[in-house]
Design brief:
This protein is α/β, with parallel strands linked by helices. It has a single domain, classed as Rossmann fold (3-Layer(aba) Sandwich). It is built from five helices and four strands; from the N terminus they run ααβαβαβαβ. A four-stranded parallel beta sheet has the order 2-3-1-4, sandwiched between helices. Helix 4 links the parallel strand 2 and strand 3. It is elongated.
Length: 141
Amino acid sequence: SATVPRSIATLAKSYQRDAVRILAGGEEKQHLDIEYRALSVAPADRENAIINVLRYYEAANAMVFCNTRAAVNHLTARFNNRNFSVVALSGELSQSERSHALQAMRDGRARVCIATDVAARGIDLPNLDLVIHADLPSNPE
């Protein structure tokens, strides 16, 4: 695990002999191959700002992260109304629905995936062109 609470480490130490703990540093560094930008937008202008960024960059595919399922559902409906090919990923979807959404992104039927950060963990979308955080992440990781 990436993080081990002190109580668990102490418990593990009592059962292990000659165990070695390896800590890797440098996880805080940015990827040098990624361009980062921050835009400050009034909450009322959030939807239009995201749409404008998507249109400006004309990315072949994009991921938009939201903090809640409700925000995912809301943005998905709004983007559908604006004729974006969009899919949603959130914890309320079945594994089959998630797989179909990701396949739509991979084969080009969908251009934008709107997801909660929890639902999007561990997914593989090759050549993802653009990532937008609609809400500030509650966890810096």
